[in-house]
Amino acid sequence: MVGNDMQLHHYHADCNRPLADASLVACPDCDLLQRLPEVPPGASARCRRCDKELWRHKPDSINRTLALTVAALVLYVIANSVPMLGLNAVGREAFTTVIGGAAQLWHDGQKIVSALVLFSAVVSPALQIGFLLLVTIGCQRERPSFWFGGFLRFVRVTRTWSMIEVMLLGVMVALTKMADYATVIPGLALFALFGLAVLLAAMQASFDPREAWKRIEWAEPQVQPPKAEAKP
Amino acid sequence: MNAMATTAAETAMGQGLQSCHACGLLSRPLPGVKAGRCPRCDEPLVFRKPASLERTLACLIAATICYIPANLLPVLTTNTATGSESDTIMQGVVLLWSATGWPLSIIVLIASIMIPSAKIVALFHLILTVRRGSITNHTQRAQLYRTLEFIGRWSMVDVFVDTFTASLIQLQPLMSVEPGPGLLFFAAVVVLTMLAVEFFDPRLIWDSAASKHSTRDIQHA
Questions:
Q1: ipTM
Q2: Per-residue model confidence as pLDDT tens digits over A79-138
Q3: B130, B53 in Cβ contact below 8 A?
Q4: With DSSP H G I counted as helix, E B as strand and the rest as coil, what are the percentages for chain A, rounded to 5?
Q5: pTM for the model
């Protein structure tokens, strides 16, 4: 049983043993064991049972993701620092930002919903950009520290709850509703948010976690534990 | 290729291997250990998400309960000089229907009314078929689960619509809009169904296939 497993290194005494064969994977959706084939850039490997995409070979993944992430960071800062929407009615003008919208909701007594809006439209996109930036910058180094892997773990979760594109659709609907009785002025942040939604999708699409893990994984070998005795 | 050709032995769990949810690495837990840890990223590892069906069901029941006030209570209240008027989600859809606004009206109808109810029905179906150990339609059920994962977030649209409508229309004393009590319940439906999807382990759909089949293999042997 132990013969097939290689003990490269481990961080804790109680953690699992990695397999010697790194091309062996289990489908995350159906648990079927299979070997990842070498696929040409741009192509993908799919689970032979449930058709889940197991891996897509993305060329120059880390550098492209880094470029897109930096661009997303710039747009994120703009999107959250200038007005997003203005309203002109009966001689009065009102402007709001994403954070301003959440603040008004808080003020109106909807504190839980306000927190949800803030979390999904402001906090999660920031974490998504932040984690991916740390990982892609970390991977530029010759020998990335293994603790960069910790950030990589959270990229998936932040993506689930980051909802810029959903918020934009909501803004569009709100605009249409209000257009009946007021003049709506789109702010600079609205355009920045459109760009941000596209960049967030692009940076996730260009990011190949397998490539990042390859660079991080065995770059910093730990103290080798004594080899387990092979059982006869 | 064929689902029926698979046995338990061909799954990671069947081989006593755990695959990391976070980084994808396949690893072998120490002898006698059920809950291991990923040697690469330190994520806690299990063969299947713990109490997956129970947690999914709990979120789903809570979501179903919240679904009723979410649709009956007003999500927006418009105060004007002449009085105030409250709209539920469905009334919002109707109000949006106009010569130019109808595509958005349909989008809100789909995102706020059809997706949440379809999600609840679909998740009940998945829990029920897994619990019964259904050996049919694995591929369709796997696709259903993936669709749920993908579309769930879009139900948040109405929360954002109401947030920005309420924050911009503050023209006191002429006209102001404030969020209604239905908004909290609606947001709860969206979050609870998203959590239900997260708690559900799609590998359970396929486990029934493998175990049913392996018992048949044993009988044949």
A1: 0.85
A2: 999 999 888 877 777 888 999 999 999 998 899 999 999 999 999 999 999 999 988 888
A3: yes
A4: 50, 15, 35
A5: 0.86
Q: Nearest CB to B24: which of A25, A96, A181?
A: A25
The domains of chain A, with CATH numbers, are 1-57 (no CATH), 61-217 (1.20.140)
Q: What is the DSSP letter of B11?
A: B
- Residue recorded with tokens 């520290």: A145
- Residue pLDDT, tens place only, B146-178: 999 999 899 999 999 999 999 888 877 788 888
**Token reading at B57:** 């069901």
pLDDT average, residue stretch B170-195: 90
Nearest to A16 among B21, B27, B146 (CB): B27
**Residue B5: HSE in the Cβ half-sphere, 13 Å Cα cutoff:** 5
A182 three-state secondary structure: coil
DSSP A37: P
Domains along the sequence of chain B with CATH: 1-47 (no CATH), 50-220 (1.20.140)
Dist CA B147 CA B100 (whole Å): 30
In whole angstroms, give the CA distance from residue B112 to residue B195.
17
Which residue bears the tokens 């064929």? Answer: B2
* Residues of B in Cβ contact (< 8 Å) with A105: 163, 166-167, 179
- Subunit contact A28:B21, Cβ cutoff 8 A: yes
Look at B153 and A166 and tell me if their CB atoms are within 8 Å.
yes
Output the furthest CA–CA distance in chain A (Å, rounded): 88
